[in-house]
Amino acid sequence: MLTLNDYNSRIKPSWCPGCGNFGIWGALKNALLKQNLSKDDVCLLYDVGCSGNMADFVHTYGIHTLHGRVISVAMGVSIANHQFPIVAIGGDGGIYGEGVEHFITACRANVNITAIVHNNSLYSLTTGQKSPLAAKGKKTKSTPHGVVEVPFQPLKSAIIHDAGFVARGFGADIPYLTELITQAMQHKGFSLVEVLQPCPTFNKDMSVQWYLERVKKLPTFDGLSEKEAFEKVDEAPDSLVTGVLYKSERPAYHEHFPQLQQVPLLGQQIETVHIERLINSFI
């Protein structure tokens, strides 16, 4: 029988006390256990940053990617074996900043992966510069007079591009986040779980109590219409709705290709290549 300890490495987490990453780490392990996935049954990919440090703390197949590239590498893994559970883990800086083009592409293509985004609206590993999700006017180390730009809207962007599954959770509500991650992993296509992640060291204005006063769960996991989801997202920051915001049943990326529908690329036989014939074809 699998236990939560089976997913722990020999390295203990080094996050700051009270960091929301602990809750995400626990919920992810709970979701793997709930699906009875052994360490050999799943591939976790990590971006750079505080979220990426999780690569040292989880004992499964894993790839520690470059900053902003976790979605693109996860897409490559999925194309090789779309039947393998694949989870891309990163922060709002890496996925919505450096990697935003890959994020939008994954939504459009509906590649069969799950993305878990740690959202604290900062680059916390580098001591608290603003991320693309920082609110207009927020003062950070890189914006001492306040953020000038309006924040990027990743949830709306995912819905506009008809991603398969779009949800938002809260790092301090581990049971509910466990269910969201589980459903995301079991949904066909690109699944986004954005997690509101308290950062007590560098984002003291948005404490756990600040979130508790604003987080409101949706009553069901059924998903909303595009219009309803947009209205819920627009209630921020006074109300931060968590739950399944949107679902799409359109085909996943690999289902558009007959050669991938039955057998993953990894399981297909490679035909003998006659190199001279191949070279001559280019002459």
General description of the model:
- Helix content is 30%, strand content 17%.
- It is built from ten helices and ten strands.
- The chain is globular and about 65 Å long.
- It has 283 residues and is of the alpha/beta class.
- Helix 3 (92-98) crosses helix 4.
- The mean pLDDT is 96.
- The strands form two sheets. An eight-stranded mixed β-sheet has the order 2-1-3-4-8-7-10-9, sandwiched between helices. It has a two-stranded antiparallel ribbon with strand order 5-6.
- It has helices at 21-34, 70-80, 92-98, 100-109, 154-160, 174-186, 208-212, 226-233, 258-261, 275-280; strands at residues 43-46, 61-64, 86-91, 114-119, 122-123, 129-130, 165-170, 191-196, 215-217, 240-247.
- The protein has a single domain (4-280), classed as Thiamin diphosphate (ThDP)-binding fold, Pyr/PP domains (Rossmann fold).
